[in-house]
Design a protein that fits this description.
With about 400 residues, the chain is of the alpha/beta class. It has one domain: 3-Layer(aba) Sandwich (Arginase, Chain A). The protein is about 35% helix and about 10% strand. It has 13 helices and six strands. The protein has a six-stranded parallel sheet with strand order 1-6-5-2-3-4, sandwiched between helices. Strand 5, helix 9 and strand 6 form a beta-alpha-beta unit. Helix 8 packs parallel to helix 11 and helix 9 packs parallel to helix 10. It is globular and about 50 Å long. It starts with a helix and ends in an 8-residue tail after the last helix.
Length: about 400
């Protein structure tokens, strides 16, 4: 999960010339108040304060917030969280404004983070925050997760609402992290049947995966009719991932992007897991091309770039072939598919929301950060509330 894999992806995208087909934006830093739209204030405050130098003085809080083992403290951790979260939020804003119909943030997609808990290398759940932003303009938002791990943090956030449908295709069983996402995990209350989980076993290949993905997503799109879609494209479901155990090829993984894009619904693509760095870069560069509709123009021989040697020994776009046997029996896959489709039949119509005042689509400033830069910018609590209630207030 090191940011280095994002750097490799970026250089490969640029080397292929894909940036010429896009408008590229440098993400701004997400503020603490923005993160608190989902996360608890004490958790966000802890993330802001903890550093490798002071973590020993904050051991009790580290235990409380599950930071330390699979979510280690590292230098510039807070800025890293601000960057990938800010990019997802800005992508959602671009979609809401109609300025673009597709946005990509390969640094985002950290789907395990909970309201007050880090989990699975994820500190801030940018996906939940991005979906909340999309909900300001769209009565229904669809979240799709093709990471090998269950998208538990996103599902948990929207488990009791029908305004967000969460569909996750993932490895399940054998104590595989995070241990959630059984087929009968379908939501609760108003959210019942709006969580769709497709649990899979080791070695699933393109044919079997797409035989589940396409009919299930076809039914979802027909029944739910989302106004916007967020697709988490975790690359650890590719063949030969260091932690993954699926057998998807580059083309099979990218076919999910192509299929969802074909519906013409505003689409936000994010990254996620992926632990063989060269394959992660291959995957997301190729899926960038698929999103742009120029994948047929890519050479199989990788173009020279600053990280060219990392793609040895093949130096080609294709991901090496898998070496894992497919443990998914046809009858089990049929049962999982039928269960998901039966649940979707229980959705009688696409849910709607009552007319109400739309929350402002502006970004909350990080007041405390501004105060650190200039004490003259210090505000009283009443002044802050007044500024936050005025969408046109010049508070930056």
């Amino acid at each position: 999960m090191k940011p280095h894999r994002i750097t490799m992806t970026h250089h490969l995208v640029v080397a292929y010339g894909l940036h010429k087909h896009m408008e590229c934006y440098r993400p701004r830093l997400a503020s603490a108040p923005e993160m608190c739209q989902f996360h608890s204030e004490d958790y966000v405050d802890f993330l802001r304060r903890v550093t490798p130098a002071n973590q020993e003085q904050l051991l009790s809080q580290m235990q409380r917030f599950s930071v330390g083992e699979d979510c280690p403290v590292f230098g510039d951790m807070w800025k890293f969280c601000q960057l990938y979260t800010g990019a997802t939020l800005e992508g959602a804003v671009k979609l809401n404004s109609g300025q673009h119909d597709l946005a990509i943030n390969w640094s985002g997609g950290l789907h395990h983070a909970k309201k007050a808990q880090a989990s699975g290398f994820c500190y801030v759940n940018d996906l939940v925050l991005g979906i909340l932003e999309l909900l300001k303009y769209h009565p229904r938002v669809l979240y799709i997760d093709i990471d090998i791990h269950h998208g538990d943090g996103v599902e948990e956030a929207f488990f009791t609402t029908d305004r967000v449908m969460c569909v996750s295709f993932h490895k399940y069983g054998d104590n595989f992290f995070p241990g959630s996402g059984a087929h009968d995990d379908i939501g609760h209350g108003r959210g019942k049947y709006y969580s769709v989980n497709v649990p899979l076993k080791d070695g699933i290949d393109d044919e079997d995966f797409l035989a589940l993905f396409k009919p299930i997503m076809t039914k979802v799109m027909e029944s739910y009719r989302p106004g916007a879609v967020v697709l988490q494209c975790g690359a650890d479901s590719l063949a030969n991932d260091r932690l993954g155990c699926f057998s998807l090829s580059l083309q099979g993984h990218a076919e999910c992007v192509r299929f969802i894009k074909s519906y013409g619904v505003p689409l936000l693509l994010t990254g996620g897991g992926g632990y063989t760095k060269a394959n992660v870069a291959r995957c997301w560069a190729y899926e960038t091309a698929v999103a742009l509709g120029v994948d047929g123009e890519l050479s199989q021989d990788l173009p020279r770039n600053d990280y060219y040697d990392y793609f040895a020994p093949s130096f080609c776009l294709q991901v090496p072939p898998p070496y894992i046997r497919n443990h998914n029996a046809p009858e089990e896959l049929e049962r999982v598919r039928n269960y998901a489709l039966d649940c979707l039949k229980r959705i009688q119509h696409a849910p709607s929301v009552q007319m109400q005042e739309m929350p402002p689509s502006w970004m909350l400033p990080d007041f405390d950060y501004l105060e650190e830069l200039d004490p003259n910018l210090r505000m009283t609590s009443s002044q802050r509330r007044a500024a936050m209630a005025m969408p046109d207030a010049d508070v930056y």
